[in-house]
Model the fold of this input.
Amino acid sequence: MTAQIELKNVEKYYGAYHALKNIDLSIAKGQFVALVGPSGCGKSTLLRSLAGLETITSGAIHIAGERVNDLPPRKRDVAMVFQSYALYPHMNVMDNLTYSMRLKRKPRAEIEAAAKEVAETIGLSHLLDRFPRELSGGQRQRVAMGRAIIRNPKAFLFDEPLSNLDASLRVHMRKEVRALHNRLGATSVYVTHDQIEAMTMADHVVVMRDGIIEQQGAPLDLYAHPANQFVAGFIGSPAMNFVDARISESGEAARLNLPGEPLIPLNGSYPPGRSVIVGLRPEHLSVVGPDAGLALKVSMVESVGSASYISCSATPELSFVVEGTTRLRSGDSVHLAIDPDHVHVFDAKTRLAIGVVN
Amino acid sequence: MSIAWTNRMLLLVALGLAALYLFPLYWMYVTSLKTGSEIFATPPGMFPASPQWSNFVYVWETRNMGRFLWNSTIIASGTMALTAILGTGCAYVLARYRNGWIDLALFLVLMLQVLPASLMITPIFVGFSQIGLLNYPQLAVILAVTAKAMPFFVVLVRATFMSVPGELEEAALVDGNSRIGAFWFIVLPLARNGILVSAILIFMQAFGEFVYSKSMIQASELQPASVGLNTFMGPNTTEWGNIMAYATIYVTPILAAFVLLQRRIVSGLTSGALK
Ligand SMILES: Nc1ncnc2c1ncn2[C@@H]1O[C@H](COP(=O)(O)OP(=O)(O)OP(=O)(O)O)[C@@H](O)[C@H]1O
Ligand SMILES: [Mg+2]
Done:
């Protein structure tokens, strides 16, 4: 597999502000890569650097084998879909779609055929004469996608393209964008701050924070083996619980820093006596009978029908999920069992995941 | 006091102020139609008894007004064209880049706006005469008025450019356009209204320009109508009817244009703010 997009040691400064720090990323042809991270972590900066809208301070960017560091956007042959869609307000849908082809002075017949095909793909054939201001948000979004598709570029770059849509349309468009990607055999880089979007759409997820890549990998790998506490807390919904703890003398259990100092079993052996943070996903805690597990008090129950999210009063707060509805009410006591296979252990200082010492 | 009542009071005050402000204009029109004795009658009449339409024909012919108005038009058009060509690029740069130098440049531009023409004329006159520009007096006036009008134009057009989202330009760059192409085919069409309106305002301002023309243009066949009007008004003038007829011919086209275009002018000036 050859890399369609390759970034090596990419650094970007805005004046004294270090926006991208030593970014290494390799994206194979046909891959759908999601960049996720909290606001201000440099996702857009990275995407804009790929498009050529920002110049990087050092490092190298290769697209389809060609070094593009010094190429202007128009010579990079990538298409970008902006969060605001950036449709040209003084052109109708037809002209918006075909703008790139007209710039290349393609023959008229070819342009019209391409526009027709793309309009059908995105389901806007009946709106070609409208102006952007006469379209709904979802339709504008489609035009923006169409404008990218028509170019058949080396890569698609998306900057939070769905964030202006309402929730149900967003879920629908997620599938559509992904299906489109598969159909076109495209290479896509998709920026989002919504980890569910990243997990559901992408083959490869890149988690960023403060200009660095915290971890990258297949979505379920990130879920199952987060490399550090940040990724563990960022991936997965509802978010992972974190409890301070100390590894027991045997190295095969952790003593939680909760009232009564409960001991939970670990799978494997860890450095004895080490201060750690234990990560427990809400979906991996299960309610058991009164003689076992962690004894806690319920503080809040939120039910959405298919599942119930239950918070327990502890410092820090612990939450867990049960399927369907629940009879638990605020104030009830509950006992939770922990599956040792699903306990994540992080060093208290470095916040990095600690591997099992065999 | 109810709100409706307050509104009515405010409307009344507004109308009163407008009447006060527009009264000289009214007086110009009325006087231009009066006979000599009517003008000096006490108390003055608010309406001409027998309108003297012949004043206009007389003034147009004896004062060679066609020539003067033509000169005004040349100076105003030249100023407008030069301002638009030079100022648009400048406003674009000031709108798109943000740093300390840009702030300084903007400050200097606004500073120029503060200096009055009557103060600037002496250094300009000396400078122009040294480089021989005064041999082309209309060109000299165009250059001087352009310099004077530029800050106003730049500030207005800059606001227009700021209302065009930068992402549109970036989309055009990614779509395969060059920097200049994106400016020319995406940004400029979207800023067109604001630029047009600002240019028209500059034209109107230059059409009435007096200080620079009076000082730099000696030959009467090159002078604009503002200077012609001033020469008409000697110290012992009694021909007020004719002078007012001159003034009427001079300002009515501008007023008419303004009234006709006022909707577009107002919307062009506020398009950025309202979105
Ligand atoms: N032109 C600029 N000049 C200076 N700093 C900038 C500039 N553009 C972005 N930054 C800074 O770089 C950092 C990363 O910005 P970026 O837009 O890439 O964030 P992001 O991850 O896309 O965030 P969001 O999810 O909010 O869009 C931010 O701290 C931002 O303030
Ligand atoms: Mg962003």
